[in-house]
């Protein structure tokens, strides 16, 4: 499952690389792409690619944000395993095989981003998220928000009811729930690369406001009232 928003410069390359990799591994798959209200050439590129790749399916909705788009994908996913990755080309498919080969012994397999950089603000938000998960749920995951995760669908189904409908950071919440519920977790580092185009949509005070909302939602999930929390 891949959330997409205004990634026309790289999305064709990213999705083609993933299609080639899962075909090489002989995996029976459906590649579900969720276009979160893209305003550039992304929709055309996705339609052209879907016309050539029968197992690639595209869904569209008005812009609701990265977190809610991921959560929609999780709730609509089928099959025994669900894999989520972003479309920005910061992490590639060349490290997926190890997670896939190890899947039988685990419920959640993560590619922790090695060498990840960014603004001081984003690094601080990442640190706060990791510390919050440890304090509220326990230790067990280093990169709590990595968008490179393979999840056993039966385990995912047990925590989805705990997550608020408009979760800002569902992957952080999932990491916390996985630790709290004793999931079998595997995490290995994978190389992170600087995105070649575009920038994040949350900057300055928007980032801090969103992070604060995410922290409040995370606390609600930890005490069992997550579904009562809605983004403002």
How are the secondary structure elements laid out?
Blueprint: E1 2-4, H1 11-24, E2 31-36, H2 42-52, E3 56-61, H3 66-76, E4 81-85, H4 96-102, E5 108-114, H5 120-136, E6 148-152, H6 153-159, H7 170-180, E7 185-191, H8 204-222
Parallel strand pairs: 1-2, 2-3, 5-7
Antiparallel strand pairs: 4-6, 5-6
Helix pairs in contact: 5-7, 5-8, 7-8
Question: What features would you describe in this structure?
Answer:
Helix 2 (42-52) links the parallel strand 2 (31-36) and strand 3 (56-61). Mean pLDDT is 91; it is low at 227-232. Helices cover 42% and strands 17% of the residues. By secondary structure, the protein is α/β, with parallel strands linked by helices. The protein has one domain (2-228): Spore Coat Polysaccharide Biosynthesis Protein SpsA, Chain A (Alpha-Beta Complex). It contains 8 helices and 7 strands. Helix 5 (120-136) packs parallel to helix 8 (204-222). The strands form 2 sheets. A 4-stranded mixed beta sheet has the order 4-6-5-7. A 3-stranded parallel beta sheet has the order 1-2-3, sandwiched between helices.
By CATH reckoning, the class would read: Alpha Beta
Structural class: alpha/beta
Under CATH, the topology can be stated as Spore Coat Polysaccharide Biosynthesis Protein SpsA, Chain A
**What's the main sheet like?**
4 strands, mixed
What's the gyration radius in Å? Answer: 17 Å
Q: Can you give the mean pLDDT? A: 91
Order of helices and strands: EHEHEHEHEHEHHEH
Q: Helical residue percent?
A: 40-55%
> Which superfamily, in CATH terms, is the homologous superfamily?
Spore Coat Polysaccharide Biosynthesis Protein SpsA, Chain A
Query: Which percent band covers the strand fraction?
Result: 15-25%
Beta strands, count: 7
CATH architecture field:
Alpha-Beta Complex
Strand order of the largest sheet: 4-6-5-7
What's the shape? globular
């Amino acid at each position: 499952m891949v959330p997409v928003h205004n990634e026309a410069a790289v999305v064709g390359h990213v999705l083609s690389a993933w299609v080639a990799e899962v075909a090489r591994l002989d995996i029976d798959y459906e590649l579900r792409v969720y276009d979160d209200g893209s305003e550039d050439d992304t929709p055309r590129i996705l339609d052209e690619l879907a016309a050539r790749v029968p197992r690639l399916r595209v869904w569209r909705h008005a812009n609701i944000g990265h977190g809610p788009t991921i959560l929609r994908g999780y709730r609509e996913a089928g099959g025994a395993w669900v894999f989520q990755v972003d479309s920005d080309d910061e992490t590639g498919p060349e490290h997926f095989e190890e997670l896939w080969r190890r899947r039988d012994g685990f419920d959640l397999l993560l590619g922790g981003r090695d060498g990840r950089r960014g603004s001081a603000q984003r690094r601080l938000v990442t640190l706060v998220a990791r510390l919050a998960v440890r304090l509220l749920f326990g230790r067990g995951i280093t990169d709590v928000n990595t968008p490179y995760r393979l999840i056993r669908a039966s385990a995912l189904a047990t925590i989805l009811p705990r997550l608020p409908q408009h979760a800002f950071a569902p992957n952080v919440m999932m990491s916390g729930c996985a630790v709290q519920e004793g999931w079998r977790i595997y995490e290995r580092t994978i190389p992170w690369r600087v995105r070649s185009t575009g920038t994040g949509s949350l900057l300055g005070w928007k980032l801090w406001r969103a992070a604060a909302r995410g922290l409040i939602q995370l606390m609600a999930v930890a005490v069992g009232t997550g579904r009562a929390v809605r983004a403002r």
